[in-house]
Write a structure and sequence with these properties.
This protein is α+β, with helices and mostly antiparallel strands and about 450 residues long. Helices cover about 70% and strands about 10% of the residues. It has a 4-stranded antiparallel sheet, with helices on one face. α7 runs antiparallel to α8. The N and C termini lie far apart (about 80 Å).
């Protein structure tokens, strides 16, 4: 009786669980992320990349330095308040004869400005040049980020292709294992062929796993560059086969020369260091400044003293400072400034030469990759046909298992080489576009 009751309870519990499973709403599945185009990935990278943000912040800091240098050229206004108490001793000044009395009140506004200061003006122009250099360096960092994102973008596309290629090779190995087993059953091949096919299948399984791991690494590498948080579900648009035309070399060289941020940064550095020479040379010249005071400086904190005399008023002073001797420090600073200008000019010349060399290198790289794409495509078609014919000949007993395995390996390598060729061309073309500022 107890055993029968237990069976009834178990049956009723199973029925209830089944009913709940049928009536309970299914958990909402996470929507798959929409694939990113290259331009969308670049926009995300410019927004979130730490290196690019640091360069932009450096440019913003340089802009604030320029504002501070400009403010130093203009008169400044300040307020001053002071009270001095001196121990009285019966005299008009108190125990300290330098003071005007036991109580001295000072409250005034001060306007200070430079009438002539060559160093301050040169510092402002140097700060403006430094801001231009920082902006150009921020552009350099942005374009370097673009090159990195482009490379990672197409490496991810290629990794997805290679993963698909590895899975296709795995299916081909599985099909060939079935063929060898059928041939062995029919008594047409030895068991060694089956063993060889099994070894080949194991190798293809490992290659598929490695390809999937490489695709995961590529996704994470791109995700770290373009997203502010950790993500694994990164999908990109596969436009690897959309081979863009290559513009003429003269047009690329002209555009790169006019748009290179490296050259602009080097030119701005030369201007900045040249103004540094002006700053150092200004230390040889006199400076003239003025001060205007308006307020109270009296023994009573009032507009009029007890005798009715006015205590609220103004004073004006102008002063000139003439440098005479500082043990050669100014001459040393001037020599330092000239050395910095020479170094900046050498770096400018190097940046110009490197730009022309990079344009030529990337252009030739793109040319070679473009010319090889069609050849690699032909090799892929031939390898595909070779595997098909070799498999048919194996079924007919005309070739050995080693030839089939070799044809499979050749087709696998041809697929990967074709994808690598496409990536090589797209990356080289993107490098040219980065130099010309069109990407």
């Amino acid at each position: 009786m107890i055993r029968r009751l237990t069976c009834v309870v178990v049956a009723w519990g199973a029925f209830a669980v089944s009913a709940l499973a049928q009536t309970a709403p299914a958990a909402p599945s996470q929507p798959a992320p929409s694939p990113l185009t290259l331009q969308e990935a670049l926009a995300q990278g410019r927004l979130n990349a730490v290196q690019a943000r640091a360069a932009i912040n450096a440019a913003d800091l340089a802009a604030e330095d320029r504002k501070q240098a400009r403010a130093a050229l203009l008169p400044s206004l300040s307020a001053f308040a002071q009270y001095i108490h001196t121990q009285p001793n019966g005299s008009g000044s108190g125990v300290f004869v330098a003071n005007d009395g036991p109580n001295v009140y000072t409250t005034w506004l001060t306007v200070h400005g430079d009438v002539f200061n060559a160093g301050t003006w040169a510092s402002y122009r140097g700060a403006a040049a430094a801001e231009a250099a920082a902006r150009a360096k921020a552009d350099v960092a942005s374009r370097g980020l673009v090159a990195t994102i482009v490379q990672n973008f197409y490496l991810l596309v290629a990794a997805a292709h290679k993963s698909a290629n590895a899975n296709q090779s795995l299916k081909e190995a599985q099909t060939f294992l079935q063929i060898t087993q059928e041939q062995e059953t029919a008594g047409e091949v030895a068991h060694a062929d089956v063993v060889k096919a099994q070894i080949q299948l194991g190798q293809r399984q490992r290659e598929a796993q490695e390809a999937e791991l490489a695709a995961l690494k590529s996704r994470l590498g791109l995700s770290v560059l373009i997203y502010p948080d950790y993500r694994e579900d990164v999908a990109v648009v596969d436009d690897l086969h959309d081979v863009a035309p290559l513009p003429p070399l003269d047009a690329v060289t002209s555009a790169a020369t006019g748009a290179s941020p490296d050259v602009r940064a080097a030119e701005a550095s030369v201007r900045q260091e040249s103004f540094g020479v002006s700053v150092a040379r200004g230390a040889f010249l006199p400076t003239v400044s003025f001060d205007y005071f308006y307020g109270i400086n009296a023994n009573d904190f009032a507009t009029y003293n007890p005798e009715g005399q006015l205590l609220l008023g103004s004073a004006f002073q102008i002063q000139a400072t003439v440098p005479l001797w500082n043990w050669g420090a100014t001459q040393s600073k001037l020599r330092q400034a000239h050395l910095k200008v020479q170094q900046a000019q050498a770096e400018l010349s190097l940046a110009q030469r490197e730009l022309l060399a990079n344009v030529t290198t990337f252009y030739r790289e793109a040319e070679v990759a473009r010319d090889q794409v069609e050849s690699l495509r032909t090799s892929l078609d031939l390898a595909t046909e070779s595997l098909r014919l070799t498999t048919l000949r194996y079924r007919a007993g005309e070739v050995t298992v080693l030839e089939v395995v070799d044809a499979q390996s050749t087709l696998r390598d041809a697929r990967n080489a074709y994808d690598d060729g496409l990536v090589r061309y797209r990356v080289a073309l993107a490098a040219l576009q980065t130099l010309t500022g069109t990407l």
